[in-house]
TrEMBL record:
<protein>
    <recommendedName>
        <fullName>Diaminopimelate decarboxylase</fullName>
        <ecNumber>4.1.1.20</ecNumber>
    </recommendedName>
</protein>
<dbReference type="InterPro" id="IPR022657">
    <property type="entry name" value="De-COase2_CS"/>
</dbReference>
<dbReference type="InterPro" id="IPR000183">
    <property type="entry name" value="Orn/DAP/Arg_de-COase"/>
</dbReference>
<keyword id="KW-0456">Lyase</keyword>
<feature type="binding site">
    <location>
        <position position="387"/>
    </location>
    <ligand>
        <name>pyridoxal 5'-phosphate</name>
    </ligand>
</feature>
<dbReference type="InterPro" id="IPR009006">
    <property type="entry name" value="Ala_racemase/Decarboxylase_C"/>
</dbReference>
<dbReference type="Pfam" id="PF02784">
    <property type="entry name" value="Orn_Arg_deC_N"/>
</dbReference>
<feature type="binding site">
    <location>
        <position position="327"/>
    </location>
    <ligand>
        <name>substrate</name>
    </ligand>
</feature>
<feature type="binding site">
    <location>
        <position position="387"/>
    </location>
    <ligand>
        <name>substrate</name>
    </ligand>
</feature>
<keyword id="KW-0210">Decarboxylase</keyword>
<dbReference type="InterPro" id="IPR022644">
    <property type="entry name" value="De-COase2_N"/>
</dbReference>
<dbReference type="InterPro" id="IPR022643">
    <property type="entry name" value="De-COase2_C"/>
</dbReference>
<feature type="binding site">
    <location>
        <begin position="287"/>
        <end position="290"/>
    </location>
    <ligand>
        <name>pyridoxal 5'-phosphate</name>
    </ligand>
</feature>
<dbReference type="GO" id="GO:0030170">
    <property type="term" value="F:pyridoxal phosphate binding"/>
</dbReference>
<keyword id="KW-0457">Lysine biosynthesis</keyword>
<comment type="similarity">
    <text>Belongs to the Orn/Lys/Arg decarboxylase class-II family. LysA subfamily.</text>
</comment>
<feature type="binding site">
    <location>
        <position position="359"/>
    </location>
    <ligand>
        <name>substrate</name>
    </ligand>
</feature>
Length: 436
């Protein structure tokens, strides 16, 4: 997919660059991003909105993969940015991202984070709860400043995805509850607060969703709410943010729709609902993460040891694992891969790909068909662009990999590999009197 192909040497090539050259130049594990594919995905979302002639913002949910280069690219692509922490906001500031296109999410933003957002004059804060509503207002007033906000609503929609990444159901830590009247109370408070401008409402039902049903239900619930808010407070939102969560194809059996289809389906219902409620079309915002960067990322690993258990299984171990991709261990996520140096050879064996961490659960792929592989081979695992590097960790004191962007035969290193020295950068030695 994307610009990936097999070159004359039988090597996997991405963005016009030989993956084996990348592996030897930058080492492994290595995250390789196909920039052209990120561009294409952003364009698909934006074109879908343009075709509907609806005012919109596509915000990149930066939790999927954040670094300064990614934010520079997001700016160039005309994306807004959804950040969820002071760290992501700091990265955006350092990357020079336009602050008026930054949206700040999270169910427990700290006072410091809210102050930072007000200070940086970001586009809006997506307020999650009463505590935050109150604190944000206090911070704005004390600084004689101002902030635009959206209210995050728990839409009460069950998304059909893994429990841990489903967020729209009623029993959720996120957002103002729809059924118990919390939303109405929040609108009442926010709309009479001079330091806050209530732009609209937000809902996000979950992640890695294939069907449009959940999104359609969320739109319907949001419009019932909008009619209600209009009647009660004469409040009509100018922005309706429908969140992210559009699924991608990790393995052959996955059946996501083309990204434009999700947009089209949602807008269809929005238009219909707005017309029947006699309302102006709100600005529609979405915040995809995975569907913008997920399939653009490939991880290259060097293969090391093997274990053959007769009549049971063949294990192949790679030089990374749950330290650079937590998803299989956390969500039983599935991936596909090939030998990057022998990409044109037929699969004759079945290997289970183990990571190097001291955990039996550190398995990247079970039962992967491959040619007969050995320690000279490089394994490419596909679709690791979202929630791979961003959830990478130093378990077992394994340094985090390097990340490169490739496009049109050019390579840009965007995150350098962590060194052992980096690993002890924050460690402090005990003073001599403390070591008996
Ligand atoms: N907006 C909100 C409010 C979110 O909570 C999320 C994801 C997104 C947008 C972006 O969702 P996406 O388009 O990327 O599906 N670590 C998990 C995914 C957790 C998603 C959390 N929120 C994984 O690796 O599958």
């Amino acid at each position: 997919h994307g610009t990936s192909r097999i070159n004359e040497q039988g090597h996997l090539e991405i963005g016009g660059v030989d993956s084996i050259k990348l592996a030897s130049q930058y080492g492994t594990p290595l995250f390789v991003y196909d920039v052209a594919l990120i561009r294409e995905r952003a364009k698909q979302f934006q074109e879908a909105f343009k075709a509907e002639k609806v005012p919109f913002q596509v915000a990149y949910a930066s939790k999927a993969f954040s670094c300064m280069a990614m934010f520079q690219l997001a700016e160039e692509l005309g994306l807004s940015l959804d950040v969820v922490s002071g760290g992501e906001l700091y990265t955006a500031i350092e990357a020079g991202f336009p602050m008026d296109r930054v949206h700040f999410h999270g169910n427990n933003k700290s006072i410091e984070e809210l102050e930072m957002a007000v200070e940086a004059k970001i586009g809006c804060v997506v307020v999650d709860n009463f505590y935050e509503l109150n604190e944000l207002s206090r911070i704005c007033r004390s600084r004689k400043s101002h902030m635009s906000i959206l209210l995050r609503i728990t839409p009460g929609v069950e998304a059909h995805t893994h429990d841990y990444i489903s967020t729209g159901q009623e029993d959720s830590k996120f957002g103002f509850d729809l059924v118990s009247g919390q939303v109405h109370e929040a609108v009442r408070i926010a709309s009479k607060d001079d330091s806050l401008t209530l732009l609209g409402i937000h809902s996000h039902i979950g992640s890695q969703i294939f069907e449009t049903t959940g999104f359609v239900m969320a739109v319907e619930k949001m419009f019932d709410l909008i009619s209600d808010l209009k009647a009660q407070f004469d409040f009509v939102p100018t922005v309706l943010n429908l969140g992210g969560g559009f699924g991608i194809r990790y393995i052959e059996g996955d059946t996501p729709l083309p990204v434009g289809e999700y947009v089209h389906k949602m807008i269809e219902v929005v238009k219909d609902k707005a017309a029947s409620a006699n309302l102006n079309m709100p600005e529609i915002w979405i915040e995809p993460g995975r569907s913008l960067v997920g399939d653009a990322g490939t991880t290259l690993y060097s293969i090391g040891s093997q274990k053959h258990i007769p009549n049971v299984r063949d294990y192949l171990s790679v030089d990374g694992g749950m330290s650079d991709n937590l998803r299989p261990a956390l969500y039983q996520a599935e991936y596909e891969g090939v030998l990057a140096n022998r990409a044109n050879e037929e699969a004759t064996e079945t290997f289970s790909i183990a990571g190097k961490c001291c955990e039996s659960g550190d398995m990247l792929i079970w039962d992967l068909p491959l040619p007969k592989a050995n320690h000279e081979d490089v394994l490419a695992v596909f679709c690791t662009g979202a929630y791979g590097y961003s959830m990478a960790n130093n378990y077992n004191r394994i340094p985090r990999p390097a990340v490169v962007f490739v496009e049109d035969g050019q390579v840009f290193e965007v995150i350098t590999r962590e060194s052992y020295a980096d690993l002890i950068r924050l460690d402090l030695r005990l003073p001599s009197q403390a070591v008996k």
